């Protein structure tokens, strides 16, 4: 436990025991720093953590006070503005915007608040490289047959065991290794739909799904999505009844950008709706290992009885983004997906497959995951508290249940693209909301990444973005 967490827990205990009561003022940051012999930054982080727990509230120029009500005054995630897109399919053309945004995010060492990638500092890169080096010296392990689809037997076995340990029975023969989850989603979509077909997606949705639809000349239809419960199943049912839908692409666990965990009963209902109409579901599960709760989330795949769920995932968010190793569990479409994998990239390199398989077998993957989950959960609370304190009145945020991304709704006058450009001039990146939709419904939304270790630089960047947003909100 860090020093600021210990301080926050100590103060929380005093609040629970009524030593501090509703409306009482806490020591000033400077007083607490001097009295306890700790830094001002440590005290500030502790107070922000208490604020995120709803136990205290800050008053400008006055300090921190015990909150008037449990949960604090911050808006709930369910109060985020919901987009209600028209139930019409649209051609997709977001790739140019996303590419230009990602290029600027990756350039010039900008503060990566807008990055879609996890910070690599928490990944066991050296260990994985040692396994890759050892495998590279053993010529008997590197035959072409193990690089061809479906993939290296050692990795297939480890992935199947991983699912089994989490309560989901998986046949290793169903698994297809791919070059990341992006390839898995692309070939799964290609296996179930054709150019011109209509694909149902969440609104907002992860832009990689829109890229797959755009690449294949298909159309997207956006379905309203609740920031805590996921895709609106009744709205999806109405769309299916009114027009042909070839497939549905969703991210039920820790969705990018909203961060929600879809409840099991809604997962079951979504799978049952798809089964009733014979519609395949492409499930993106790349964030499944990054849950903040004690239990691993269920998957749509676990409720599937007809082989209609094509489950896609990867190690890029939880272990290493450098190796680009993903996989698909394509159900009844398994043979077609394997053929498309072969036609698409022929092979998936054996060395990274073997390195990951060896790490999973020998090197404490669960211990690694516990560390990364704890870090992300702490930083999620801090980022949320900082945004709620330093962004303009009317700002609302999601409440991520996992992953490393925060969805932020700004006041209506704030144009996310203008905010993005102004922040970039300051050496700070944000993810503008326009990347997550084929409509124009998220002009005043941004996505923030909190995977980078918390630092003074990150704090200053968040405060700066808040000031820019406030200036944009005042602009006539």
Low-confidence stretches: 69-74
Q: Per DSSP, what share of the residues sits in E-state strands of 2 or more residues?
A: 5-15%
- At CATH level 3, the topology of the largest domain is Aspartate Aminotransferase, domain 2
Count of individual helical segments:
15
Secondary-structure arrangement, i.e. CATH architecture of the largest domain: 3-Layer(aba) Sandwich
Q: Which CATH class of the largest domain is shown?
A: Alpha Beta
Q: What is the number of E strands?
A: 15
Q: Describe the main β-sheet briefly.
A: 9 strands, mixed
List the domain count as a whole number: 3
CATH superfamily of the largest domain: Type I PLP-dependent aspartate aminotransferase-like (Major domain)
Which class best fits the helix and strand makeup? alpha/beta
How confident overall, as mean pLDDT?
Answer: 90
Distance between the termini: 46 Å
Order of helices and strands: HHHEEEHHHEHEHEEHEHEEEHHHEEHEEH
Q: How helical, in percent, are the residues?
A: 40-55%
Overall form:
globular
C-alpha Rg (nearest Å) = 23 Å
Account of the 3D structure:
- This protein has helices at 3-16, 29-36, 40-52, 95-106, 125-137, 153-165, 180-192, 207-215, 233-242, 264-277, 334-345, 350-362, 365-390, 416-425, 456-474; strands at residues 56-59, 63-66, 90-91, 176-179, 198-203, 219-226, 230-231, 247-250, 281-284, 309-314, 325-329, 396-397, 405-409, 431-432, 445-449.
- The protein has three domains: 3-66, Arc Repressor Mutant, subunit A (Orthogonal Bundle); 82-120 and 370-474, Aspartate Aminotransferase, domain 1, CATH 3.90.1150; 123-366, 3-Layer(aba) Sandwich (Aspartate Aminotransferase, domain 2), CATH 3.40.640.
- The chain is built from 15 helices and 15 strands.
- By secondary structure, the protein is α/β, with parallel strands linked by helices.
- Helix 1 packs across helix 3 (40-52), helix 7 (180-192) packs across helix 11 (334-345) and helix 13 packs parallel to helix 15 (456-474).
């Amino acid at each position: 436990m860090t020093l600021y967490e210990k301080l926050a827990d100590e103060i929380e205990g005093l609040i629970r025991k009524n030593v501090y009561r509703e409306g009482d003022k806490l020591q000033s940051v400077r007083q607490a720093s001097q009295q306890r012999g700790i830094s001002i930054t440590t005290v500030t982080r502790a107070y922000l953590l208490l604020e995120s727990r709803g136990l205290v509230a800050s008053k400008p120029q006055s300090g921190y006070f015990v909150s008037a009500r449990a949960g604090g005054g911050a808006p709930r995630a369910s109060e985020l503005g919901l987009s209600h897109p028209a139930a019409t399919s649209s051609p997709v053309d977001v790739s140019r915007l996303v590419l230009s945004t990602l290029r600027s995010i990756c350039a010039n060492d900008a503060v990566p608040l807008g990055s879609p990638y996890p910070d690599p500092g928490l990944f066991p890169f050296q260990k994985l490289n040692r396994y890759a080096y050892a495998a590279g010296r053993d010529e008997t392990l590197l035959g072409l047959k193990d690089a061809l689809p479906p993939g290296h037997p050692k990795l297939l076995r480890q992935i199947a065991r991983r699912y089994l340990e989490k309560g989901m029975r998986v046949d290793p023969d169903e698994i297809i290794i791919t070059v990341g989850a992006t390839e898995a989603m692309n070939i799964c979509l290609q296996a179930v739909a054709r150019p011109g077909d209509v694909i149902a997606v969440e609104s907002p949705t992860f832009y990689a799904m829109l890229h797959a639809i755009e690449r294949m000349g298909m159309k997207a239809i956006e379905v309203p999505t609740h920031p805590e419960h996921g895709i609106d199943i009744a709205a999806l049912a109405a769309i299916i009844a009114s027009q042909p839908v070839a497939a549905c692409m969703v991210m039920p666990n820790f969705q990018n950008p909203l961060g929600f965990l879809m409840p099991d009963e809604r997962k079951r209902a979504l799978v049952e709706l798809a089964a009733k109409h014979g519609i395949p579901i492409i499930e993106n599960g790349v964030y499944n290992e990054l849950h903040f709760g004690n239990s691993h989330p269920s998957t749509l795949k676990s409720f599937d009885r007809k082989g209609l769920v094509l489950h896609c995932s990867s190690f890029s968010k939880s272990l290493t983004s450098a190796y680009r190793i993903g996989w698909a569990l394509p159900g009844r479409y398994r043979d077609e997906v394997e053929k498309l994998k072969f036609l698409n990239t022929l092979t998936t390199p054996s060395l990274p497959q073997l390195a990951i398989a060896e790490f999973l077998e020998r090197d404490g993957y669960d211990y690694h995951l516990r560390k990364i989950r704890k870090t992300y959960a702490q930083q999620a609370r801090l980022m949320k508290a900082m945004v709620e304190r330093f962004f303009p009145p009317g700002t609302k945020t999601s409440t991520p249940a996992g992953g490393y991304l925060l969805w932020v709704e700004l006041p209506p006058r704030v144009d996310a693209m203008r905010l993005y450009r102004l922040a970039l001039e300051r050496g700070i990146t944000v993810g503008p909301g326009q990347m997550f939709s084929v409509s124009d419904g998220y002009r005043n939304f941004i996505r923030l990444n909190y995977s980078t270790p918390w630092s003074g630089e990150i704090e200053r960047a968040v405060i700066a973005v808040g000031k820019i947003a406030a200036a944009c909100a005042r602009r006539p």
